[in-house]
Amino acid sequence: MSRNIQNTLTLPGTPGLPEIAHGSLRFIGTATVLLRYAGFTILTDPNFLHQGEYANLGYGLHSRRLTNPALPLERVPPLDLIILSHMHGDHFDHVVMHRLDKAIPIVTTQQATRVLRHNGFAATQPLKPWQALTIVKGQTQLRITALPALHAHGLIGHVLPPVMGSMLEFMHTNGHMLLRIYISGDTLMDDQLKAIPYRYPEIDLGLLHLGGTRILGMLVSMDAQQGLEMLELINPRLVIPIHYNDYTAFKSPLHDFQQLISIAGLEERVIYLRHGETYTFELTHSRITGER
After folding, report:
1. pLDDT at 292 over 80
2. 228 with 264: CB under 8 angstroms?
3. Residue 128 placed within a domain
4. Nearest CA-CA partner of 241 in 43, 50, 25
5. CA-wise closest residue to 115 among 150, 158, 86
6. Number of helices and strands in the chain (H, E)
7. In angstroms, rounded to a whole number, what is the distance separating the alpha carbons of residues 122 and 242?
8. Predicted structure pTM score
9. CA-to-CA distance for 97 and 150, rounded, in angstroms?
10. How many domains does the chain have?
11. What digits encode the pLDDT tens for the residues 12-41?
12. Residue 268: inside a domain, yes or no?
């Protein structure tokens, strides 16, 4: 395992301590989520294609979108940063490439950074696995650590773009931890993921990219069974499945995951969001203050 190297990015802050008792997560569609917490506004894997449009998967492969995003790109609020798991058309589409503000910081893989910089994005923040970027804004900070992810096994895994999972750790600038969120990225179960719960035994929320995506018949994102295995491995307090019904390449419906969760008796640990729905969370007093 490589050493955890940290860099720091400072954003303009606002006077006083931001709201840290509450936060929200709005599911826009695919792997696109709008997260607001501790003064940060974050967008993940921006995909704003509409129903019937095609996402470019590379090598002449495309997938047709079956849904609409819950809001258009133009209505997304001002962002502090974007977290991009990898460079695929269903995670960063041509609409976003042309219309997104080129000055927004984007935390992503080194491969995606090269593509973004070629297209004029000036504030990319590339991370290797286990590298971290600390973002300071006023009296709170966010540490983003790139985590292992495997898009596919075998030969197809060598031609698909590299993927990163992400750990988001919100904390006071004095280092007191407030909230920890895991984002899987498009990954399959793999032995390298076992290091994640070892390094992060306490995770508040996990966002799992499901869908059972298949390219040329090969599985390239978790299906229902692997989603259950990931929940059991990473062991977050709560899980929200995303990336499950938006494209023709998605072959494992959310219903299959729901059935397995019910059989395993884990219903209370999973929150299901439809497009446009928001999950609002609240931190306990002891979590906010660090008191026991």
Report:
1. no
2. yes
3. yes
4. 25
5. 86
6. 7, 18
7. 29
8. 0.95
9. 24
10. 1
11. 987 777 889 999 999 999 999 999 999 999
12. yes
- 126-148 burial by CB neighbour count: b if 16+ within 10 A, else e? bbebbbbbbbebbbbbbbbbbbb
SS3 97: helix
Alpha helices in the chain (DSSP H): 94-99, 110-118, 154-159, 195-199, 224-234, 254-264, 285-289
In a domain, 113, yes or no: yes
Amino acid at 165: G
Residue 6 to residue 100: CA distance in whole angstroms: 27
Q: Which two tokens stand for residue 34?
A: 């709008």
pLDDT in tens, 161-177: 999 999 999 998 888 89
Dihedral angle computed from the Cα positions of residues 276, 46, 84 and 168, in that order, rounded to the nearest 10 degrees: -30
Per-residue pLDDT reduced to its tens digit, 181-207: 999 999 999 999 999 999 999 999 999
Could you say which DSSP state residue 134 is in?
E
Token reading at 93 = 């589409």
Residue 195, in any domain of the structure: yes
Which candidate, 59, 47, 103, places its Cα nearest to that of 78? 103
CATH number at residue 94: 3.60.15.10
- Which pLDDT tens digit goes with each residue over 57-91? 876 789 999 999 999 999 999 999 999 999 999 99
d(CA 78, CA 228): 35
Q: Which of 189, 238, 237 is nearest to 212 (CA)?
A: 189
- Host domain of residue 108: 15-284
Beta strands in the chain (DSSP E): 6-11, 22-29, 32-37, 40-44, 54-58, 61-64, 81-83, 106-108, 124-126, 132-137, 140-147, 165-172, 177-183, 205-209, 214-215, 218-219, 238-242, 278-282
269: DSSP letter: G
